[in-house]
Predict the 3D structure of the following.
Amino acid sequence: MTTEIRKPVPNRQDLDNGEFWNGTDQGELRVKRCGDCSRHHWPPRLGCPYCGSGELAWVAVGPRGEVFSWTVVHRSQTPGFETETPYAVVLVELADAKGVRMIGNLVNCAPDKLKAGLAMEAVFTPSADGSVKLVNWQPVAGG
């Protein structure tokens, strides 16, 4: 008997990041912004990591940024991804939210084309089970 290994899927009911996943379903990136110091932050927290304020709100930010770093996975340790190796995971610094960096898989680009500062844009891709849209990254056309 063969057991199918499924890819992990985010918990969209999670109180800390459920609003992020609601945004991806609408094709937008959402991060928290502090009402006191006005700084954006990621990942989401209950308090501002800069000033400690609890006056936080989810806000939409633009889907573009630049490659800050990346890694190429040749041997996946995550069940469900073994057949997709090699694949690249990129860390993208968002253009509209200074200091915010998000991780996602690289799509529509060979890993050997990556370089620091490469202009990227978010791509919202349905999860394996279709329950949520995941954030992946691709180079900006013509960039």
Remarks:
- The two ends are 48 Å apart (CA to CA).
